[in-house]
Design a protein that fits this description.
The protein has 455 residues and is of the alpha/beta class. Strands 1, 2, 3, 4, 5, 16, 17 and 18 form an eight-stranded mixed sheet that branches. Strands 6-7-8-10 form a four-stranded parallel sheet, with helices on both faces. A four-stranded parallel sheet has the order 12-13-14-15. The chain has 15 helices and 18 strands. The protein folds into two domains: 121 residues, Urease, subunit C, domain 1, CATH 2.30.40.10; 317 residues, TIM Barrel, CATH 3.20.20.140. Helix 5 packs parallel to helix 6.
């Protein structure tokens, strides 16, 4: 298949979840892509001009299925080398013993380049077309991550981590002062915005206080002012686990969400990871601020001490997407995250203590979600969280997409009926659970194939 679909059209079987709870299958769809990579027109069978448009379009390989690209709202890029390991300690000990020493190595930009190139390539091959990255406190390495995303064609948000609290951060890995952290953050913002290869802002900066425990109040206030000045959104953690949640309550006399807000760190488009211990008031505040939660079920299982009440948050109008949380989450594929989001919601509803009768095991009531909702959160829901036109096959959306091959010989996905003969919700459920990296024949961002890379 041609590596560049801009200015052309494709025809085949498309499937997406344009709204929460809704799935749409479009056999023989024709998607016209403009010269800049946006979807210009979607022709469905029976529409005027469909037959003529189909004759002129590139036909996707028989049996393949076109899906929207995946949106991962929470990735710690420097932690990729420890993915799938070092998860045996509570959060605060995990940071001190494993994660901070690893992240300190990114003072070496050659090491950073090697890791970040592998990470971006692997995520694109797994279908993550939009990624929200934490980097480290190192300006040069953070700029290098942004450069690599631009070169690879991935849609991304990149944040230089700010952390200056002398009592909460190790001497070998922290900003020298609040002023230094703010200056470094500003430098990375300027680098990304002025990058000559990034005129359409496919890669954008994010202001990134690591989390409240690692930042002095001076730094939090300064980053809030920087957000107001630059219009850059914020990414951080809040109410992840008992230790962090209790620390903020004791230090500031309010929850993490409320404290971030008072420092001006909840501008629209911001992403707050975890939220396992958020109150209804916290969620209502997030919805009002047009900020979002990155639901990270894998890392919540290791560090959260609770299950994020996903349906409750959605019911309160909170924008929610999914985060793999490399490496607090042990798997890089966002489809694996979506699978656990389904299981976590089911366990929250049913409870887990077999010593209690069924009606008493859980106090959460209806908490489960279905595969359509999980896939929506991984695509269009993540796009909405970031204010991006991605995740749907509709005019005006960017053509960020995956071509899934159910018959890939190294894959584990098997369809026993043609896609067009299968109930769309059941087909999406099978795709969500069965699609592996080997089944992703191609990933596209803005109409350009970004994986596999053309020889």
């Amino acid at each position: 298949m041609t590596p560049d679909l801009r200015g052309s059209a494709v025809t085949g079987f498309a499937l997406h979840a344009p709204e929460r709870g809704k799935v749409e299958a479009i056999p023989e769809t024709v998607i016209e892509i403009d010269d800049l990579g946006a979807i210009a027109t979607v022709h469905r069978p029976g529409d005027p001009g469909h037959a003529a448009a189909q004759r002129a379009a590139l036909t996707l390989p028989a049996g393949t299925i076109l899906l929207p690209g995946l949106v991962d709202l929470h990735i710690h890029a420097p932690q990729y080398p420890q993915l799938g390991t070092a998860l045996d300690l509570p959060l605060e000990e995990w940071l001190e013993n494993y994660t901070f020493p690893l992240e300190a190595r990114y003072a070496d930009t050659e090491f950073a380049d090697r890791v970040y190139r592998a990470l971006v390539a692997d995520l694109l091959a797994c279908g993550t077309t939009t990624a929200v990255y934490y980097a480290t406190i190192h300006d040069a390495a953070t700029c290098r991550l942004a450069d690599i995303c631009i070169e690879a064609g991935q849609r991304a948000f990149v944040g230089r981590v700010a952390m200056d609290h002398p009592e909460m951060c190790p001497d070998h890995y922290r900003d020298a002062s609040a002023e230094a952290a703010i200056a470094g953050t500003r430098a990375v913002i300027d680098h990304i915005r002025a990058h000559p290869g990034n005129p359409g802002a496919r890669v954008r900066p994010m202001i990134t206080p690591r989390f409240i425990p690692s930042c002095t109040d001076e730094l939090l206030a300064g980053l809030g002012e920087l957000a107001r000045e630059t219009g850059v959104a914020v990414q951080t953690h809040a109410s992840e686990g008992d230790w962090e949640h209790a620390h903020v309550l004791a230090r500031h006399g309010m929850t993490g969400t409320a404290s971030l807000d008072r420092f001006g760190l909840l501008p629209p488009g911001s992403v707050i990871a975890h939220g396992c211990h958020m109150s209804a008031e916290d969620m209502t505040l997030l919805a009002r601020r047009e900020a979002a939660v990155a639901h990270c079920p894998w890392s919540n299982a290791y560090f959260g001490g609770a299950v994020f009440p996903l349906r409750r948050a959605l019911g309160l109008g909170v924008r929610v997407g999914l985060g793999s949380d490399i490496s607090g989450g042990p798997l890089a594929s966002l489809l694996d995250t979506a699978r656990l989001a389904l299981a976590a919601a089911r366990m929250l509803e049913a409870g887990t203590d077999a010593g209690l009768p069924p009606g008493e095991r859980s106090r959460h009531g209806a908490a489960r979600i279905d595969a359509v909702t999980a896939f929506f959160l991984a695509t269009a829901g993540g796009g909405e969280a970031l204010g991006l036109p991605v995740g749907r096959f509709a005019p005006g959306q960017r053509f960020d997409a995956l071509l899934v091959d159910p018959a890939a010989p190294q894959g584990m996905l098997r369809l026993w009926e043609p896609p067009e003969a299968t109930d769309p919700a059941r087909l999406l459920e099978r795709l969500l659970h069965g699609t592996a990296r080997a089944n992703i024949a191609a990933s596209f961002v803005d109409g350009r194939r970004v994986a596999p890379v053309a020889a």
